[in-house]
Amino acid sequence: MRLLTTVAALRCYLAKRRLDNLLLEQQQQSEFEVTDRSLTAIGLVPTMGALHQGHLNLIQRARQENAVVIVSIFVNPLQFGPNEDYQRYPRTLDQDKQLCEKAGVDAIFAPNPEEMGVDLKNLQELKVTQVIPPSAMISGLCGRFRLGHFQGVATIVTKLFNLVQPDRAYFGQKDGQQLAVIRRLVADLNFAIEIVACPTVREASGLALSSRNQYLSATEKQQATMLYRGLQRAATKFYAGERDAQTLISTVQQELALASSLSVEYIELVEPTTLIPLEKIEEEGMLAIAARLGSTRLIDNIILRDRQPIIAIDGPAGAGKSTVARQVAAKLGLVYLDTGAMYRAITWLVLQEGIVLDDECAIAQLAHRCVIELAPSQDLQSPVRVSINNRDVTQAIRSLEVTSKVSAIAAQTAVRQALVKQQQNWGKKGGLVAEGRDIGTHVFPDAEVKIFLTASVQERARRRLKDYKKQDQSTISLEQLEKDIAERDWKDSTRKVSPLKKAPDAIEVNTDGLSVNEVTEKIVGYYQQRLSRD
Ligand code: AMP
């Protein structure tokens, strides 16, 4: 792992890594026809150091999804007000280095303020260009109490994005307002960066981890747990049907009033993307708090979502994901979102238009313009009806030609982005069963039920052969299928980026020797268990 403290060293390091990546890409291109960009992606985790498990979760996620992981450690003077804790903020670089090394980070970027062009002299003379987020997003919540804070965050994050030019950047949901501001910044300034939000990591007591927790005495730490307890009280009311903002806010207030030493700055309910205050939750709301305990300022939030649950089914190729997903959806009266069919539809369109597979620009254009529609089939025996640009392609997308090309198309970043966006839009109201690679980790990371469906190689080969026979495409032997599946498993699970693996919160279901009905019953059982918990 490298520790880089200057912009020059960072640029040099990145140039070298990009050159290595370019060579890797070229190698891949000759091997697989097209490039899987995720194999060469750069992930950035911006932090202010004093790393804890919350940061380490962002790093771990970045490690899974990128070839190069950069962690920046910079206590940003621009985001601290004159009476805030800039001088006192914990600085623990030696320990942070060890944690990063252990977590497999490639390089830490830890510049000083002067190197970042924001030393005190510059600040006092207002000599730096700053990025100002929309005032509607920074006038409420923390912005009301920390004037200039989000301008400081937006400025430094923009500088880091320009310096590192990552493919993905990782932020915690704990700083909900910051996350919304950064998503807006990326959209408004046209950064080609995917912002990945990671859930808040908490102590067993419910207290959200924060570098500032170090300031708390043992008694204060106990009092601090009231923040999450208040949020949880409101969540319980919400799940019992309460939607009114004022009632939910008063619930938190009443809970916090029990902790005499907590001085509340705000309790607000806002729309999580625009941060507009809500009177009532229609789809989702972010209930956020800031409070002071002595001189320590603490924040926390939860997302309250009014949607039917989502079941996300992932697992190796050929484990029966689509058959099971369709049946689970039918059984529970949910919609089956056949993501594989969407990738197949685009592949069909690419072949139809005579576009060569490595013309990624033409394919990107096609993917962002096409309209895919999925209509549930009348009965379980027939597949979901699929149309693309008003052409029914339900049968056409199951051809051997589409099957052999679909993974190359699905690996293209622009295609994935276009389709994931469509899938997430469908997911807003919930009530879906979705299956496919990364569905539980990337597309619907907050799915209520996550299943990892597996089966032995032999079992999967037998099932696939049966499918091919049904379609009169039985020229492949069982042995060949076993070999292909084993090889695909190996490739999927050893790839450096996004290796196929179970999400930590997914339930593994091995389908060997089980009928589709039996597997369906199991999953329906997990779903019902989950519902009864809320
Ligand atoms: P900071 O070092 O406090 O600026 O935080 C760096 C990143 O880590 C931000 O994206 C935070 O949202 C994230 N983060 C901090 N604490 C947590 C936590 N308890 N859970 C998840 N993410 C966190």
| Topology, number of strands | 17
Bound molecules: adenosine monophosphate
Radius of gyration: 25 Å
Major sheet summary line:
6 strands, parallel
Please, what is the average pLDDT? 90
Distance between the termini: 44 Å
Q: Globular, elongated, flat, extended or rod-shaped: what is the shape?
A: globular
Helix content: 40-55%
Low-confidence stretches: none
Order of adjacent strands in the largest pleated sheet: 1-4-3-2-5-6
Beta content comes to 15-25%
Describe this structure in words.
The chain has 534 residues and is α/β, with parallel strands linked by helices. 45% of the residues lie in helices and 18% in strands. The chain is built from 19 helices and 17 strands. The chain has helices at residues 7-32, 53-65, 93-102, 120-124, 135-138, 142-145, 149-164, 176-188, 218-239, 245-256, 321-332, 339-352, 360-369, 400-410, 413-427, 439-443, 457-470, 478-494, 516-533, and strands at residues 2-4, 42-47, 68-73, 107-109, 168-172, 194-198, 262-270, 284-293, 296-305, 308-314, 335-338, 372-375, 385-388, 391-392, 430-435, 449-454, 507-510. Strands 1-4-3-2-5-6 form a 6-stranded parallel β-sheet, with helices on both faces. Helix 3 (93-102) links the parallel strand 3 and strand 4 (107-109). Helix 9 (218-239) runs antiparallel to helix 10 and helix 12 packs across helix 14 (400-410). The longest helix has 26 residues, at 7-32. Residues 47-48, 54-55, 57-58, 171-172, 174-175, 198, 200-201, 208-211 line the site of adenosine monophosphate.
